[in-house]
Amino acid sequence: VPYQFEADLSLKRLRPRLDITWQQLGLDSKRAQEFEGRLAEHWYPLFGLLMELYGTRYDFFYHLERILVTTAEAWATRSPELRAQDHHRINEPDWFATQKVVGGALYVDLFSENLGKLREYIGYFKDLGLTYLHLMPLFAVRPGDNDGGYAISNYRSIDPRLGTIDDLRLLADEMREAGIVLVLDFVFNHTSEDHQWALQAQAGDPEYQDFYYIFPNRDVPDQYERTLREIFPTVRRGNFTWHDGMQQWVWTTFNSFQWDLNYSNPAVFRSMLEEMFFIANTGVDMLRLDAVAFIWKEMGTSCENLAEAHTLIQAFNRLTRIATPGLLFKSEAIVHPDDVVKYIGEHECQLSYNPTLMALLWESLATRNVKLLARSLSHRHKLPGHTAWVNYLRCHDDIGWTFDDADAAAVGINGYDHRNFLNRFYTGQFENSFARGVPFQENAETGDMRISGTLASLAGLEQAVEEDSEELKELAIRRILLLQGISMSIGGIPLLYLGEEWGMLNDYDFVKDPAKAGDTRWIHRPKMQWQYLTELDDHIASGTGSIRSRIFLASQSLITLRKSLPALSGQQMKIVDIGNPHVLCFVRMHEAHRLIVLANFSESPQKVAGNLLRTSGLGRFFEDAISGESVATSEPKQLEPYQIMWLQRA
Ligand code: OTU
């Protein structure tokens, strides 16, 4: 064990401080044993991580003590319900990985106006089958543009337009009773320029100036710039913003009002830890770790995905194991697939967005060819134990083509050209494209861009509705359900971005709001239309159906079906080469359960040889769990345009 002697001695010296904390909190030492047991269990790795990050600081021991006290207080003030849940989850470390878990994400204001009203929709989530709900950032934000809530001015108060901390606690309680997991963001790479720490920095307090990266002139920023990318090039060139009041430069990776936190300062780590525990103790089950790639900077590097970023998250993770062990982390690393997976682990982030799968599903829809998707999945889907992918088709952000160029080359694709093609395809510039997306952060210099647009608009529904073509509508609906069918069966937690269940189209009105006009991602953040639900009831009563009702009912039954199929639990998945480049085939397995998925990514019918299905060792007769149709392996099987089948042994 590295630093074993130092770790032991430090803990011995810290023990009296811990006893004082228990006394101050009126806690008897018997109850504190729970905490101390977990502290002992995680102390060596935790100490090692903090030593790596801050061991050379003159004031290391001071910060160590404060980190420990913060953690002890967080545990001691955790509610009995949450502590009971912690115990339960320690004993069931894979509780989140079963097929019964299905997620949804939404903006509170756009969905239900506020947190109070959101409670009234718990029935809606249950009806749809959701057991996990990610609420987009809902904390207090700066006035005007707040990057969809990602410019936080106070992590302990809710945006007054949405409600109060008590509303959040109440919602968390009711969701827990309803069996729905609550997910919130931990926006820890940056704060808003009007966060208390930033205001103190602006007032000239050197202690708080050290919370951020602040420079008197361009010397150091220019040196950093040599190796940095630009993430939001249409907002501002470069990564630094001149602050008039301070007459200094501030590091701002994203918008100019989002100030990057300086984690090389242990006071920042300790302070954000306290904010994290505050959020956790409101009743949050999972924290989405925003922008993980950027949290550590080092001169001469890209300042993305550095080793210390992992050390930092692992340190946060160990502290949650001690104080709030029911809490999980979800990584938001929308980066190269080799880097995405490095954030995933029992002792780092137990969950991660799966941006590679997301991008390659869209890639396969555009090309009608699954070779790159299959190639990537064949060696990138497997994850370590007690972790899971979060599979999504669209989210509140743009689509970036983050696939691996070597994967592409292996199937004869040039990555650079292919990204250009995909950008043209999804912005509708490519002839015969069905997609209605728009560019996001187009970089005039590099020609680089990302794509905005809703699932339905990108899948062709917007075009079909405009052209009023029944045939095109049918194809678009099938594309939507095909992608949903994959996301629900590939292995991991499927995450719907709410609105998708209705096939909601792009909303072009965002440009009318000056705080949103400069950011095309608002095109795919439409307001929920509750009349759809009334229409649905009418449709069910009359036996007729609109496009929206059809998408809703089909999504709902896919979710119900997924939950009933134990083979869809966990991650285990094997790609099968079925000899048809338009058809993705994989086998899902969990314990003794098996399921074969066949998915046709083209608008023409496709045949697959029946005997190939037999090689899966699952027998000769199957039933498609989606359509109920029987399939015999003695003859070739024809898949309809964009059809997906979940084949069970009959
Ligand atoms: C995240 O995304 C959020 O999801 C965005 O909504 C925020 O605007 C941003 O951080 C700042 O808080 O650049 O286009 O992984 O792709 O972290 C989205 C790298 C983003 C980035 C990602 C970031």
Automatic annotation (TrEMBL):
Residues 105-537 form the Glycosyl hydrolase family 13 catalytic domain. GO terms for biological process: carbohydrate metabolic process. The keyword Nucleus does not apply. It comes from the Bacteria. CDD domains: AmyAc_Amylosucrase (cd11324). Its EC number is 2.4.1.4. One of its GO terms (molecular function) is amylosucrase activity. Keywords: Glycosyltransferase, Transferase. The keyword Cell membrane does not apply. InterPro entries: Amylosucrase, Amylosucrase_C, GH, GH13_cat_dom, Glyco_hydro_b, O16G_dom_2. This is Amylosucrase. It comes from Novipirellula herctigrandis. The gene is ams.
